[in-house]
From TrEMBL:
Residues 3-120 form the DnaJ-related protein N-terminal domain. It comes from the Bacteria. Pfam families: DNAJ_related. This is DnaJ-related protein N-terminal domain-containing protein. It comes from Marinobacterium maritimum.
Length: 127
C-alpha cells in the first residue's frame, strides 16, 4: 500500500529545514483533513495517525537517501531532513521500528484493545 500522506509529510519536511515534531505533523495533517477516512476514534485513531506518519517517515528515509542523498533523522520529538555530506552520513533506521512501521498488517490488525493494552504497559493500568 502506498501511504496517502507521504506527499504532505515530505512537503512539511522540505518547508521546515529546522525540523518538526511528530505532534506538529499530526496536527498539520489533521488540519489538511488527511485522516478524515480513518475508521476509528479515541486511542485507536491516535495509534493509526501515529502509524501512518511513522510509515511515511521510514519510507521517505530510504527514498530520500536513494534519490537525493539526503538524510532523514526520525524521532518523535524531532524529525529533520538534511543534506548528506558523504555516504557515511547515512542514518541506518532502527531495524525493529522500521520493520514494524513499514508493515501495513500491523496497522490493519491492531485493535482498540491492543492499543489500550499497550498504553497500560507504558503508563500502568488504569483504575
Amino acid at each position: 500500500m502506498i501511504n496517502p500522506v507521504l506527499p504532505q509529510v515530505l512537503s512539511e519536511l522540505r518547508q521546515h529545514p529546522e525540523g518538526v515534531s511528530e505532534y506538529y505533523l499530526m496536527r498539520t495533517l489533521d488540519r489538511q483533513h488527511a485522516f478524515d477516512e480513518l475508521d476509528a476514534d479515541g486511542l485507536l485513531a491516535l495509534f493509526r495517525k501515529h502509524f501512518i506518519i511513522m510509515n511515511a517517515l521510514y519510507d521517505l528515509q530510504d527514498i530520500l537517501w536513494e534519490e537525493e542523498g539526503r538524510v532523514l533523522n526520525i524521532s518523535p520529538m524531532h524529525i529533520e531532513l538534511h543534506k548528506s555530506r558523504d555516504k557515511d552520513d547515512r542514518v541506518e533506521p532502527n531495524p525493529l521500528l522500521s520493520e514494524y512501521y513499514l508493515d501495513w498488517h500491523n496497522f490493519e490488525q491492531t485493535t482498540a484493545d491492543d492499543v489500550v493494552a499497550l498504553m497500560e504497559i507504558v503508563t500502568g493500568p488504569r483504575h
